[in-house]
Amino acid sequence: MTTAKRPTTYSISELAKEFDITTRTIRFYEDKGLMSPERRGQTRIYSPADRTKLKLILRGKRLGLSLEESRDIIGMYSPGQSNEQQLKTLVERIRGRKETLEQQLHDIEVMMLDLQESEQRCLDALRELGVETV
């Protein structure tokens, strides 16, 4: 039984396909200084470390982190180290994001109650006027 060996380098189109994003997105992250692949002429050559950075950038995006926050966290990574500070910072950012989302959820729930009450008052007023409502 053979196992597929990971390539040692990747093209921009290979990474785009793997992560289901556009090559333009990858170039955007490069422009923002989040990735810096090797170049052979006009061709970008991505290392496994670049692939990992891209994976972390996209994970950070899904978690609601800004690109700056992702850059800071990725920049803390040191191969062969415990990366304790990186992990603590990530936990802190995750907790902050959760607090923000919990507040937004509360605000949405309050707004939904206000909308329901307003809708009901309008429907009651229409009924008092003898207007049929749907």
TrEMBL record:
Name used for this protein in its record? MerR family DNA-binding transcriptional regulator
Q: Which residues form a coiled coil?
A: 84-118
Which SMART domains does the record match to this protein?
HTH_MERR
Species, as recorded:
Aestuariirhabdus litorea
- Respond yes or no to whether keyword DNA-binding is given for this record: yes
Task: Name a GO molecular-function annotation.
Answer: DNA binding
Task: Tell me if DNA-binding is a UniProt keyword of this record.
Answer: yes
Chain ranges of the HTH merR-type domain: 9-76
Please provide the record's keywords in A-Z order: Coiled coil, DNA-binding
